[in-house]
Amino acid sequence: MTSLRRRMTEDMQVRSLSPHTQATYVQQVSLFARYFNKSPELLGPEEIHSYQVYLTNERKLAPSSIILAVAALRFLYKITLHKDWTLQEVIPTPKKPQKLPIILSPEEVLQFLRCVWNIKHRTILTVCYAAGLRVSEAICLKVTDIDSKRMVIRVGGGKGRIDRYVMLSPKLLQILRKWWRVDRPKEWLFPGDQADTHIGRPTIEDACQKAWR
Question: Which of 9, 61, 147, 189 has the greatest count of CB atoms below 10 A from its CB?
């Protein structure tokens, strides 16, 4: 690990950025440095502009992907390298098209969930739908997070590292109890291949894609 990467990682850690965000930022900065084959410390506004043109015109990345690169470079140059730049001018953020989401009807949701054959995967996706959780939040649930007395689910360390409670419907409680009888999880509600870890997000994303197809 280079000293710059270590400093940037430490800066992200003390600001409580999530591990996923840390990994994404480090990857984006690494791609930027690899493009010029130089350390980011030796690169400036001209190279940043050239890189954004490359991402837009040659790589033809979507605005959402470019926004990730911009966020990583802004963090690097503002926080870690302490550059006194006007970031909006030096590292502008592309406008992201505002599109209305596709809303599934209850019947379509049920049809989708019926296409998820694995009961663990189907239960996780049902939790996401019924309780409004992200996949990354649902897979991190622990057995003790399900409070059937108060009919709430404790979501720990969600987006922004903020804990919150969401409502637990009687129907979802039945589904979770059915899952518990199948696997008898002890700590993690949805354990992975190893008992001391929860199931990984890529596994659920893959199951979701297969069900969608």
Answer: 189
